[in-house]
């Protein structure tokens, strides 16, 4: 699979990095993603843009927060499952979703987005709220609270509305943060193999807070993503990586 890649320039070459191979991670045969070997089979991670991710997994192809031009997804297999974390335009777009949602796709959203879905999309969708569980093709999916804790940021992501997700593959748990700060629920995560953690201001958290949380719940691997911000709020993934420590391997994706 060949994709056109855009490069993000921060104070350093933030989106570029040397990947050190550890026991069950390897660079995919193509340069379009990283492959992680699990007991059930490989998971291939494809960064798309900002908060949008495509995961090729043993349980099917999973799109996370797909927005933007549908053509950005044309080189990927069609989605079997689409996860939506919340309603903001960089995570949910009804037109993009309609273009990507095939006849057999299943969509899982938080309740607020579910209530916004056009009728045709709602027929393919189900909702889970914070703390609730569901499954797709035998894959357990848990909704993890995603919210702001800093007083002046609570207007962006109020507690109780938005979801992060844990995908429970056999022996390999994947955490997708959505938009959140370093909440007690994030810091209390256990047995996470792969995490996607946001960091931008003023909407989520800075790289210090993100690194501190990751160092506490210690996933085996973490992708910093969703790191472009507003009015100087863009965060540097390389600085995040320096602060995480040596217990977690930081992976760099071409998000921008």
From TrEMBL:
Stored InterPro entries: Metallo-B-lactamas, RibonucZ/Hydroxyglut_hydro, TAT_signal, TAT_signal_bac_arc, UPF0173_UPF0282_UlaG_hydrolase
Entry keyword annotation includes Cytoplasm: no
Keyword Cytoplasm in record: no
Name the UniProt record assigns to this protein: MBL fold metallo-hydrolase
Organism: Sulfitobacter faviae
UniProt domain Metallo-beta-lactamase: residue ranges: 49-226
One Pfam family recorded for the sequence: Lactamase_B_3
Keywords of the record: Signal
Endpoints of the signal sequence: 1-28
NCBIfam families, per the entry: TAT_signal_seq (TIGR01409)
